[in-house]
Amino acid sequence: MNDQSTCACSCGCITAEDPRFAELKSYIDSLDQNQGITMPVLQEAQRSFGYLPLEVQKFISENTGVPLAEIYGVATFYSQFAIEPKGRHHIGVCMGTACYVKGSQKVLDKLAEELKIKVGCTTADGRFTLEATRCLGCCGLAPCIMIDDDVFGKLDDISRIPDILGKYE
Amino acid sequence: MMTMVDLTGLKAKALEEMESEGTLRVVVGMATCGQSAGARRVMETLKKDVAGLGLDNVKVAVTGCVGMCTYEPIVEVLQPGKKKVTYIRMDAEKTARVIQEHLKDGKPVLEYTVGHDHAGNLKNLEDLQFYAKQERIVLRNCGTINPENIHEYIARDGYAALRKALLEMTPETVIDEMKKSGLRGRGGAGFPTGLKWGFAAPNQADQKYIICNADEGDPGAFMDRSVLEGDPHSILEAMAIGGYAIGASKGYIYVRAEYPVAVERLKIAIAQAQEMGLLGRNIFGSNFSFDIEIRLGAGAFVCGEETALIASIEGKRGMSRNKPPFPAYKGLWGKPTVINNVETLANVAQIILKGADWFRSFGTEKSPGTKVFALGGKINNTGLVEVPMGITLREVIYDIGSGCPQGKAFKAVQTGGPSGGCITAADLDTPIDFDNLVAIGSMMGSGGMIVMDEDNCMVDIAKFFLDFTVDESCGKCTPCREGTKRMLEILDRIVAGEGTMQDLENLEDLAENIRLTSLCALGQTAPNPVMSTMKHFLDEYVAHVQDKKCPAGVCKALLGYMITADCKGCTKCKRVCPVDAITGEVKQLHVIDQALCIRCGACFNVCSFNAIARN
């Protein structure tokens, strides 16, 4: 627990010494222009930290000159940014029209039942976050879900779901 | 710097590589849909076994979406002088056998192909009814070339249009050609592309921009993704041509973060084009310089609206603003900007290369060219289809899509997504173009075409779309933010069996106000799904409100299950009931305890004797 990047309270919160801040700083410095960098920087921060806690938003504000209020405004506007920590794996259940008419609600219900969480929540062990998402554009495979960057289609047979979840630790 | 000689030479060299004597070219559909159907394992097997057997004449390549999603993973074998062979629904074992018998020994494995006649003559994808009425301009390279190899794009006349524009045409003649072609924006509104370019061109500014709108947010549409994954260079080339026409040296592609494969292929394509000097400074030795940057969306439907998209690239919340000023005058960072949709851009190089008259030979007078539709929902052949404008909906749904599965009755088709409406059987013979679809109460939209059958409840569908708009409203103007929410509350009451006839009147009132007073197209069109379902299926709304029944058997609160005297006492329903609401002994009439029943319909689905009645 002497590692500087770990907080004293060992709750997993992010400290100022976290090496990811330095990485983020060099990413910001690498952008050759100042116009419109808020979104790319937030996306990079989210990729690296997994979510955008207040410390990270403050850090971005200080290093880009964009007011914190504006950073917070952008972070809360777009559905892909999270202010709360997320699970190791992100499950998005497609709620596009094609999936919906082919029964994606049943898929979502089954996942919620398997993981024992509500939609929008993260499992207690931090393994999965379950969300209903916008159309994934795989309408030919309806109903489908996306876990991290993998798409699973034709889930009419919801009994396949436990096996699919088993692939992710 | 490249000259004409280079491009011609490169084309010849690439063609030779792709089509040389004795070469077997094996292509695997690796768009998102192919990959999730298992194409990656097929690819691994191919690479491993072809190398293992030392088959030097076999060239394995990735390709984009072929369009027929139900047959994925698709593998095609091309051999000069021979008919193409199409293998469908492939897996690792099937692939291993094809490698042994076909690639090595020269005998195609008949049973894995898409079909053959009695004499053993193979059919391939092009022989299918699915392709018979299609015309491929936008998707011409999708499923044919390797999107990660710029040489294959050049082999198909890639970048020849850009060369022609830069060396043989002036910006004015490029715009004139676009105007003459009559190409209309494929993002939904159908605004003429040449006019849009013509507005931006004369505006003086130190910097102008071309933006490719690849924020395909319309649920049920995936043609833009397929073009980006299958033919990314066609978009880069078109953006450069547009940049030359309006005087922009910088382009942005605003693409959804939900499309990781498309983003990756775009990155590869941009790097390759820059390396060859097809993007960058003094392209083809001309004075024209152009570069492209990718910007990722972050999950907001409203960012498909052009002023919201601009706000998003500027790093702000994606909120739309009043027009005018239009982006062609004041757009990104206050500079003249043209925003074109992916599918629109995919037409541009072909128009410049082959001319406006060629383009006008497809489609109708007022809507020339083709339109790509994403055919989905309750239809046998789901997939991407590109058809000439003017074809009827009936031809698309029955001849190409082959109708509803399991012999169910067609009920309606929804076009235009959350901004569109539904079209019933009565209008199936309407020729599809921008104006006709609006006249029958829907719209083209970006091209989602979702088929619904007798099992879909239209009130539920309307609620689904409204739920979407409420979620995606940016919140800037009151009619959209508050009005759509009130409409949704009314629909929630109706599907819960608590609606009144007054609610139906209020829905219409609200819809009209929201349509007239919202700031941007998202709000102005948000009531459409409700209005069009109320127009065509008012009886279903009334059944929910007055009879407290859902005729399609979808709205759970209005359903009830009863076991009739036909029950043979087989106990099947009792075993499948998740809440143990069914009691009864073997060979005795079973009973559902209505207090325990959660109306999941499991018993209804398993009963072999039609002994469960639903109302």
Short description:
Chain A has 169 residues and is of the alpha+beta class. Chain A contains 7 helices and 4 strands. Chain A has helices at residues 19-30, 38-49, 54-64, 68-77, 97-101, 104-115, 161-166, and strands at residues 89-94, 128-133, 145-147, 150-152.
Task: Please explain how this structure is put together.
The complex is a heterodimer of chains A (169) and B (615). Chain A is an alpha+beta fold. Chain A folds into two domains: 1-85, Orthogonal Bundle (Arc Repressor Mutant, subunit A), CATH 1.10.10; 89-166, Glutaredoxin. Chain A is 40% helix and 11% strand. Chain A contains seven helices and four strands, in the order ααααβααβββα. Chain A has helices spanning 19-30, 38-49, 54-64, 68-77, 97-101, 104-115, 161-166, and strands at 89-94, 128-133, 145-147, 150-152. Chain A has a four-stranded mixed β-sheet with strand order 2-1-3-4, covered by helices on one side. In chain A, strand 3 (145-147) and strand 4 form a beta hairpin. Chain A starts with 18 loop residues before the first helix and ends with a helix. By secondary structure, chain B is α/β, with parallel strands linked by helices. Chain B has five domains: 14-131, Glutaredoxin (3-Layer(aba) Sandwich); 158-360, Rossmann fold (3-Layer(aba) Sandwich); 370-453, Ubiquitin-like (UB roll); 458-547, NADH-ubiquinone oxidoreductase 51kDa subunit, iron-sulphur binding domain (de novo design (two linked rop proteins), Up-down Bundle), CATH 1.20.1440.230; 559-614, Alpha-Beta Plaits, CATH 3.30.70. Chain B is 40% helix and 13% strand. Chain B contains 25 helices and 17 strands. In chain B, the strands form five sheets. A five-stranded mixed β-sheet of chain B has the order 10-9-13-11-12, with helices on both faces. In chain B, strand 3 (75-78) and strand 4 (85-87) form a beta hairpin. Chain B is globular, with a radius of gyration of 27 Å. The termini of chain B are far apart. Chains A and B meet through helix 2, helix 4, helix 5 and strand 4 of A and helix 2, strand 9, strand 13 and helix 18 of B.
